[in-house]
Design brief:
Layout lengths: L2 H7 L8 E5 L13 E5 L16 E3 L4 E9 L2 E9 L11 H11 L11
Antiparallel strand pairs: 1-2, 3-4, 4-5
């Protein structure tokens, strides 16, 4: 049983949800020395703008979901499948999408196709 659902069962949090706030920079005035935060229950409204919306998972054990439109710079791809995996810094894509991402970002490729 997932940790946050056990926390709901015990009355420790009011909602069976969790959120991840990821940032490439640190805000030491806020006390965010790690550049990110995991929140159980309701998300912290100071960490996002706008409305939160939910999408159905295509695979519950892999956090896979459908994305209507992916935009990066001038590149747009409709009807893609994405995976939310906060445990990795890798981006995996089809060869077509990867080539477009490399082009838009202007990054260099290593021999094993890593973009930097």
């Amino acid at each position: 049983r997932p940790l946050w659902l056990s926390m709901v069962d015990q009355g420790l949090i009011s909602q069976s949800m969790f959120s991840m706030w990821l940032s490439h920079r640190r805000d030491l005035q806020r006390g965010d020395s790690t550049g990110g935060m995991l929140t159980f229950g309701e998300p912290d409204p100071e960490l996002y703008e706008g409305d939160i919306f939910y999408v159905p998972l295509l695979m519950e054990n892999y956090w896979m979901f459908y994305v209507d439109t992916f935009n990066l710079g001038n590149y747009t791809k409709e009807g893609v499948v994405a995976i939310s995996d906060t445990g990795t810094s890798l981006l995996v894509a089809s060869q077509e999408v990867f080539a477009e991402i490399v082009s838009v970002l202007g990054c260099k490729l290593t021999d094993n196709k890593m973009c930097y």
